[in-house]
Every structure is written in C-alpha cells, then in structure tokens.
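Dear support,

I submitted the protein below through the web form. The confirmation email said the job was done, but the results page showed an empty box. After a refresh the structure appeared. I'm attaching both so you can tell me whether what I see now is the final result or a partial one.
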Amino acid sequence: MKIRTVCLGALALGLLAGAACADPFSDLAALPTFYTDAGMKTMKLMAGFKKAWFAMPKHDRVTMTKACNDPAMSKPHAEFCANVLALGGAN
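What the results page shows now:
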C-alpha cells in the first residue's frame, strides 16, 4: 500500500511540475534580448527583435509561437507576441 501511495505522489508531483513548465514566459532568461532596457519595458525595433528571435533555439521559438497563439498566454505579453506573430512564427 505504501508503494502505491509513493507512486501516486510521484505522479502528481510530475504533473504539477509539467504544468509549471508549460508557460514559456516564466523563464525570463531569454527575454531580455528582446528589450532595450534591463527593466524590459521598451521592446527592440523589429530588426533587433528579429535578430534576437533567430538567435534562439528552434525549439524555444516553436514553444513561444504556440504560447503567443493562445489568447490567455499572450495577453500579458501582447507587444512581444505581436512581434512574434508578425514574423509569422518563423522557425
């Protein structure tokens, strides 16, 4: 019975960790390259944004594009997502 409880607990923990990782915007380490200031208030012009976009790994670009296509995820990052979608989600 204890092994069943441990296995169910591990499964639940895995599901919760997966849900927390589902938001690509939660990892802000890559996002400063898209902004001109450290406070991430001013977006780079499209040429700079495009350069930073293509410097990202393809997997990250696909993940960001999917997130920007989800209205609930893109709303807090509207300006960023507008630029991503303007690039056509180019991968």
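Response: this is the final, complete result; the empty box was a page-load delay. DSSP finds five helices and no strands in the chain.
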